[in-house]
Amino acid sequence: MKKLTILYISGILLGSMTACTKDFEEINTNPNVVEKPNPNFIFSKSQLDGLNNNYFATNILECGGMLQHYATYKEASGVGDKYLSNEVYFSAYFNQVYPTAINEIEIVIDAVKANPADSNKLNIARIWKAYMYHRITDLYGDIPYSEAAKANSTQVFLPKYDTQEFIYKDLLKELDEAATALDVSKGSFGQADFIYNGDVAKWKKFSYSLMLRLGLRLTKIDPTLAKTWVTKAIAGGVILNGTDNAIMKYTDGPNDFNRNPVGFDSRKQDFTQGSFGQKNVEGGKLAKTFIDLLKATADPRISVYSGVWQGTTQNTALAVQKGFPNGLKNAPTAAEQGTYSEPNQSTVFKNDAPLVILSNAETNLYLAEAATRGWYTTETDKDLYEKGVKASFLNMGIYGAGYTIADATPYLTLNPFNAAGSLEQKMNQIHTQIWVALFVDEQEVYANWRRTGYPVLVPVNFPGNVTNGTIPRRFKYPTSEYSVNSANLAEAVKRQGEDTFTTKIWWDK
User: Fold this and answer.
1) Beta bridge partners of residue 342, listed in sequence order
2) Nearest-CA neighbor of 137 among 447, 481, 358, 501?
3) How many CB atoms lie within 10 A of CB 361?
């Protein structure tokens, strides 16, 4: 991890110059450094960095390709599409998150933890830290956690790797403690909080909603523990209304970090200006699996998510959408490339589009699973499933009022919830809906698919793939960790299993 370096001028002559101490502190203060960090500013930076972290490489090329939201004919960029290994892409998230967003949130916590008046800032920072760490561990498994980003405070430069079991249990504890400690009568970060504008009550709901997500993540490895945390989250109060959704706000400049990385990073690296679908740098398109399902179910979200270039504009009509098959190698002609669907540049790929972090669409669908398992009995799984679909339709309005889908009745009539089905049949329906509703949050879609196995996807078997034709279960560790932090990494690999894309992480076993 990078050490936070603070330069200073040493008072070497202090002992022999006792008569010259009147202005000693002023003289020996470096005017070019910040001695006391501003927690508000650094919290804003952690929010931006936490979400801007290599979006294109991680979410589109890796997770989005594996989960068949995206496809490409190209080989070098087809790491997720074809299950190939490329150090540049699988290491990107790990390498960037620690010296930026993780280090920044630790600075915030250190700056506010001693002041009781900053208790809400402290606990919101703990919640945001938990959010970022669950994203990292879900990709890699065992990771540096308890000793990470401690170089400045405790001089730990080579942090140990904690087990994912320890990390998950600690994250859940942190969310519980932080949510309980939040005090709505006190202030917090105010406008420095780009997600909730300092609304403490909404952060409390976010914490319990994240607890619901993490609790369900444990259903394969420890159903009893999963139920405990899921019921605690529900009792605490999760996000149920669109007004409480966690949404990151962006503007189209003046700096790149003010732009939504979903659109900005992707358009910069692949879907470039002037390509008009015919000459994308990395050959990226929306996948046939995704588009075919949206068309087969007459899903109106297809016109919000996608478009086919016709000249210099995108046609978003359902009838013209066409997905590109995963696992192909031969390049289509430029004219043929232009006939395939891409993300809609007026909505999800717009530079100033809001970014949904966690919403009532997701929580209602998770509650539907909890009801199906008998862990939540206040409402039926059918009602909750329908609430999740309706919420997702309404949430399309974040891209502009004209994109709001106010009536979900035709869709739900055509695609009714199978209330009499088995657990697995219901799980398939609920989590196929998650796969659709959480489009652009490819990291969460990838994690949820590994837990549930839904929707059922047909893997590709591209020549030279590194998984024997199976969808990868994790990312490999960066090569740099083998040289910089080799002893701690070796212990993690020995404990978790071989450092391959097919080794299952703790909650996936």
Assistant:
1) 307
2) 447
3) 26
Pull the structure tokens for residue 53: 């972290």
Q: Cα separation of 266 and 285, whole Å?
A: 11
Which of helix, strand or coil describes residue 232? helix
Residue pair 395/347 in contact (Cβ under 8 Å)? The answer is no
The whole-angstrom separation of Cα 65 and Cα 192 is: 34
Chain centroid to CA 186: 29
User: Rounded distance, CA 363 to CA 509, Å?
Assistant: 24
Contacts of 102 (CB under 8 A, 6+ apart): 1, 129, 132, 133, 136, 148, 149
β-sheet with 313-315: strand ranges across: 313-315, 306-310, 342-343
Contacts of 88 (CB under 8 A, 6+ apart): 57
Q: Phi/psi of residue 148, each to 5°?
A: -75, 150
The burial of 326, by beta-carbon neighbours within 10 Å (0-12 exposed, 13-18 middle, 19 or more buried), is given as buried
Is residue 242 classed as helix, strand or coil in its secondary structure?
helix
From first CA to last CA, the distance across the chain in angstroms is 29
What span, in angstroms and rounded, lies between the C-alpha atoms of 92 and 406?
Answer: 39
Phi/psi at 71 (5° precision): -150, 160
Q: Which string of b and e fits 430-440 if b means at least 16 CB within 10 Å?
A: bbbbbbbbbbb
| Cβ-contact 351, 259 below 8 angstroms | yes
Phi, psi of 382 (to 5 degrees): -65, -50
Give the Cα-Cα-Cα angle 57, 59, 63 (nearest 5 degrees). Answer: 105
Short-list 58, 455, 60, CA closest to 286: 60
- Residue 325: both structure tokens together: 């098959």
pLDDT, block means (10 residues), the chain with 509 residues: 32 34 49 73 98 97 98 96 97 97 97 97 98 98 95 86 98 98 97 98 98 98 98 98 98 94 96 93 97 98 98 97 96 95 98 98 98 98 98 98 98 98 98 98 98 98 97 97 97 98 98
H or E element that contains 365: helix 360-372
Q: Rounded to whole angstroms, how far apart are CA atoms 53 and 395?
A: 24
The SS3 of residue 48 is: helix
Residues 142, 300: Cα–Cα separation, whole Å: 40
| Pairing assessment for the beta strands 342-343 and 306-310 based on DSSP bridges | antiparallel
DSSP three-state, residue 78: coil
User: What is the phi/psi pair of residue 357, to 5°?
Assistant: -100, -40
Identity of the amino acid at 187: G
